[in-house]
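Hi support team,

I'm filing this because I wasn't sure whether my run with 2-oxoglutaric acid finished correctly. The job status page said complete, but I'd like someone to confirm that the output block is well-formed before I use it downstream. Pasting the exact inputs I used:
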Amino acid sequence: MTQTVTPELRQWIIEQARAGFSPEAVLKAMMDVGWEESVATEALEQTLEQYVAGLAPVPMPRPDLSGSPRAIDVGDRVVDVLVAMRQPELVVFGNLLSDDECEALIEAARPRMTRSLTVQTATGGEELNPDRTSHGMFFRRGETDVVARVEARIARLLRWPVDHGEGLQVLHYRPGAEYKPHYDYFDPKEPGTAHIVRRGGQRVATLVMYLNNPLRGGGTTFPDVGLEVAPQRGHAVFFAYERPHPATRTLHGGAPVIEGEKWVATKWLRQREFA
Ligand SMILES: O=C(O)CCC(=O)C(=O)O
Ligand SMILES: [Fe+2]
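And here is everything the job wrote out:
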């Protein structure tokens, strides 16, 4: 006797998937009530494929690169698109910040710099990290006029609300200082992550803005793809990670500064409002 796959069965399969059951578990449940393995497998594959294809894409911060623009007008400035990459999803921008804005950010940050800490996903606290020998500070969102202006510009460029962003972080590297390769998302396997993402959800994208010109060294490296972005005042590198997984190839680091010093401002974007 041939078995037919009804709309009710397809609906049931979708409900099981949405409840978090693995395809293997659903297959076993179907076979337990008498479905032939080949029919059940086919029904599962077809139904889930159609279901996933019909899902709305997850909204993400990203610039509008449709039509391959050479530059993007964000209202108060025309930002150059210098490099765009798919894997990792990455864009290098030129002319995002004016020299005056870079200077103002450095001067407002300078008196508040302390040795950089990293969020410790094991506990949800913060720790001194030997892989990170820069000094840093955080601005509150909108803390100064320049901060507010830059944040509003980023929101228009990346089409992501200001309130979904963390406060701007400023980092200062002296010769020899570096930030070893790391991911910016919070590792889902670490016990502290659940607590961290309660506020604003995961990090889904990063914008590193260069505030000065180191003489040598200090690029932002992406070891998985052998890419190094030169730190050039007013430029920025954007990269996005739709899920917190190494497959996004967003492993990156701040290469050691060889000569001169390096100042950057980092904006991390969250899934939801970061209150
Ligand atoms: O300094 C850099 O180039 C990278 C900074 C960075 O990775 C970060 O702030 O998360
Ligand atoms: Fe980073």
